[in-house]
Amino acid sequence: MQLRIWSHTDIGNTRSENQDCVYANAPLGLAILADGMGGHNGGEVASQRTVFGVAELLEDQLAGEIADSAALSGLIDGAIREQNRRLFGQAQDDPRLHGMGCTLVVVVIRQGRALIANIGDSRAYLFRDGRLVQITTDHSLVQAQIDSGLITAEEAAESNARNMLTRAVGVTADVKPDFFEARLQPGDWLMTCSDGMLQCHRPAELQAEMAKAVCRDDPARYLVELAVAAGSTDNVSVQVLAV
User: What pTM does this model have?
Assistant: First the structure.
């Protein structure tokens, strides 16, 4: 099974710095995306240290044979928790970085399946046969309200609390990622993105644009530039993986 990965990030229309960070290693089937927590000190530092820290912890081990999904998820879980411990300690040691944190999506492709870990509200999607399906579940206040039946998904999209996270890397001494697995077929696409990609696109719109993106030379750049042109006020980052 061959894999191609495109990654692109943009500062967007209004921010003074890009607090998103992306990294990919296609030969190892690895893609990582993080979004520094807006409004917190050191958001850019948090996302960059987390992305490259997790990559460093994973790459040597991914170069070997991984027995099964349980072993792979344990490897990813350990890398994320170790990087969380490091980031939390750095924030405690440096007052300038106190409160820093970030979201995180890690995708690892192995033996015809994708194992995806997430923390926060950056997302992963599967695009198959023209249909875009969200794989991950946000760790956010509005998602908790949706799950409790207090608001609808449509109301959540307009909520003033939509950027309030209930879980993030680096803000507590320990953090637990959620894991999702997708069995892949030839012709499948995966897309990960920061929430800046989602500001101006409802699910049906995003599905239609994904169908156009997979026909482009650089689908990640196409989607990011689309969101920026549509007026996204946040940093925008996208990774697209083609099987």
Answer: 0.94
